[in-house]
Amino acid sequence: MRDSPRNICVNETHTEESRRTCRDRRTQVFTGWIIDAKPRNRGGITLLITDGRTRIETSLPAARFNLYLKPKLPALIPHLLNHPDLDPNTGMGGDGEGGVEEEWWMPPWYTEKTSVARLPFTSLEALSSLERRLTAEGAAEVYNTYPDRITQLFWSLNYPPTAKVECAGDGQLTPAENPSAEDYEQPGYSWAELRFYDWYGETLLYRGKSPMHFDLEVHTRDEHYTVRREELSALGAYARGVSGVDVLGYPKTYTQILVEAGLNPYRVPLTLDRRTPTSEGVREALIRLVEWSRISYTPLRLLAHASIGKPLTANEAHVAYERKWLITQTNTRLEDWKTIPQLVEHDRGGLLYRPKPGAHFNVVQLDFTSMYPTLIHKWNISPETVNNPHAQHTQSVPRTKHTVDTGRLGVVPEALSRLLTRRERLRQLAVELGDRALELRQQAVKWLLVASFGYLGFRNAKFGKIEAYECVTALARETVRRAVDAVEGAGYRVLHVMVDSVFIQRWDGAPIGEDELNTLIHTLEQATGLKLKVEAKYDWVVFSRNRHSTLASPQRYYGRLASGALKLKGLECVKRSCPQIIRDAQLEALSILGEARTPEEFAAALRHAQEAFKKHRGKIELACHPNAETPPHLFTFCVQGAKRAVRGGVEGYMWLLKGVEGYYPAEWGYMGIDREHYLKLLDAAWEQLDPQQPPQQFRGEGG
User: Fold this and answer.
1) How far is it, in rounded angstroms, from Cα 290 to Cα 103?
2) For the DNA-directed DNA polymerase family B multifunctional domain, which residue ranges apply (predicted)?
């Protein structure tokens, strides 16, 4: 039997009706979303469930946490069977839920089976203590410690730790939705977000000096309000509403400020750390985290401050568990020996062109759809399939010495195939329903797919192997080469190649028609075996010259889309380390250039854009005068570490200025600027926009 749920009335402004609802909760069915799961001291776990207004706790005392081990001492298992926190129904050789001797596949190739003992414990604390002792004393080989035992428990429960559930008065839980559905109802967690500001902008790092103002947004089932640029002294007036939410986002270095104002963040089940000025808001972060939680079955609390590798690897580990493939505590895969020529040939990234600087008109950018994950799945690339000495059916990877086992689907390809299917379904739903949340979910899945390639080459990843990474990069280069040959063979010009993107143009500079483009895409898909999509259609695109080369920077460009919007990549104005005055100058110039469509209009707009830079140059020059009217905050910029301004650096992001004697923190106050430094930054920002060709040279050429 489960314990009865315990009511936690977090909103102290309940009406009489809602108070009565709370008192009667034990006899009613409570419907809400799981927001957290924690182990209980006396065994099992406690689930925290919320409906956005009220939170209840209910326990799962029957929850079991498995210890997988291969003993090195013959008397170890009989001794462990007497452990007080072991499931009393445990008995070796059985087939039920109790501990059994099981057959699992052994790494690294998973071609041989071995017997391991599975011991179910009632207490996670006792299991963890025993596990550490067994490992330290070398008494047993311990397996399947990754991911955490709470995640493994939810695998066995068959619903994620953010599922919508119905909790009866006796604590019995029933899922109130399909756990595997992509169009699930977004959990109705109540949330609040706090941002702090000083004279120079949003502050993220508390070092003893309190900020001047704050912004607050609160979203619950009963109310939604926003406060802008309120004095810090007024923060305490919002303590009750903020402390009662399910999720709170704020810079965690300001915890002391919150506590002093009467806002206790420790009462909030889930806190999100706002670390950078460009961090996503709480609403967007929750959509992403919930999607990752439903994919990996990892609690939100464990995902909130983890890297993207946690949900990604947990998803891969789930596939391994389903196959009964053991996961070791340490990575047993060592990089194969290579000669120097082999290392030079294999250790390369994706194909990257250095385009010719200039303005190019009527350009189309084609992207391969999920190129790296698709190659991994199509070629069955996984740590245990690459260079497997036991494989009976293999395929050689072009331009490498590696082979891939084609006789058995790998763990990584299977895990990615589920993500690819899920993302495609979410994209379709987002288009059909026009739902912003569905679009954010598919983006969250996209991030996992993008990260999957990087983690494949991370030697400490549970499912990483450098040779597998090399296979993917080699296949990507080969695929793009085929695409380039097909484009040129069809009579088009390739302007630029950037890993999985190809910029194309007609040789006469005329626009590429829709039917013409569809035919070309079909030709490329036939040549490469991968799907492509139109990433962007440009009226014009500019590849600006690298300051240290006659060629353009490969990953910096800007252009006007056919829709009239601008697309910016790698420019100063999109970087958080760019001073505001430089950003303003570049954005103003870009807005002028964005009005142009034809070569003639672009040439004229370029001259007007240069005038915008001259105006901001005047602001910088006047800033050093005693009666300067240029606001000082325009010269601040945000960097991570701040090692040039603070001895030893800082952990986090800090706003700085560049003075005559060096960099200094903005929190010290405004102490002047190094005019020459900011003028050089302004000149560099203009060089990024200038096609470096006189108008008469690029007019009408289409490139």
Assistant:
1) 34
2) 347-490
Largest CA distance in the chain: 89
Q: What pLDDT is stored for residue 170 in this prediction?
A: 77
Work out the burial of residue 510: count CB atoms within 10 Å of its CB; fewer than 13 is exposed, 13-18 middle, 19 or more buried: exposed
Cis amide linkage into residue 355, ω under 30° from 0 = no
pLDDT for the residue numbered 681 = 95
User: What 8-state DSSP symbol labels residue 613?
Assistant: H
Distances (CA, A) of 79 to 133, 323, 334: 14, 29, 36
Question: How crowded is the C-beta side of 313, counted as CA atoms within 13 Å?
Answer: 22
Q: Quick one: angle between helices 411-433 and 309-322, nearest 10?
A: 120
Q: What per-residue confidence (pLDDT) applies to 335?
A: 72
- Local structure of 104: helix, strand or coil: strand
CB 35 within 8 A of CB 169: no
At 659, which helix (H) or strand (E)?
A: strand 653-659
Stated pTM of the model: 0.90
Q: Beta-carbon neighbour count of residue 403 at 10 Å? A: 18
Dihedral of the alpha carbons of 344, 345, 349, 352, in degrees to the nearest 10: 100
- Amino acid present at 70: K
Q: Is 169 helix (H, G, I), strand (E, B) or coil?
A: coil
- Closest by CA to 496, choosing from 464, 530, 544, is 544
Which residue type, as a one-letter code, is found at position 202?
E
Whether cis (ω within 30° of 0) applies to the bond prior to 147 is: yes
What does the block give as tokens for 107?
A: 């790494």
- Give just the sign of the alpha carbon dihedral 229, 235, 240, 244: positive
**Considering only CA atoms, which of 36, 87, 84 is closest in space to residue 61?**
87
pLDDT of 640: 86
Across-strand partners of 71?
A: 140
Please list the residues that pair with 164 across neighbouring strands: 33
Q: 189: number of CA atoms within 13 Å, CB side? A: 32
pLDDT of residue 5: 45
Name the residue with tokens 């070629």: 379
Beta bridge partners of 638: 655
d(CA 487, CA 503): 10
Token pair 């469930």 in the structure block, residue: 49
Contact criterion met (CB below 8 Å) for 30 and 49: yes
CA angle 189, 192, 198 (to 5 degrees): 160
Q: Which two tokens stand for residue 672?
A: 């002047």
Distance of CA 177 to the CA centre of its chain: 26
Cα angle 313, 273, 298; round to 5: 30
Q: Report how far residue 698's alpha carbon sits from residue 557's, in angstroms, rounded to the nearest whole number.
A: 17
Cα-Cα-Cα-Cα torsion 513, 519, 521, 523, nearest 10 degrees, comes to -150
- The reported pLDDT for the residue numbered 331 is 73
In angstroms, the CA 1 to CA 169 distance is 12
* CA pair distance 302, 174, nearest whole angstrom: 23
Enclosing H/E stretch for 125:
helix 124-137
What span, in angstroms and rounded, lies between the C-alpha atoms of 281 and 250?
A: 10
Other Cβ atoms less than 10 A from the Cβ of 614: the count is: 11
Nearest residue to 182 via CA among 517, 422, 10, 498: 422
Q: Annotate 280-309 with DSSP letters as a single string.
A: PPHHHHHHHHHHHHHHH---HHHHTTS-TH
Q: Which residues of the chain have pLDDT under 70?
A: 1-27, 91-99, 278, 332, 334, 626-627, 692-703
| pLDDT at res. 28 | 81
Residues 528 and 367 sit within 8 Å (Cβ to Cβ): no
Pairing of strands 247-250, 191-198: parallel
Residue 493: name the closest of 356, 599, 598 by CA: 356
The answer to whether the Cα torsion of 627, 631, 633, 636 is positive or negative is negative
Contact at 8 Å (CB) between 117 and 70?
A: yes
Contact residues for 327 (Cβ-Cβ < 8 A; gap 6+): 107, 143, 144, 145, 146, 317, 320, 321, 462
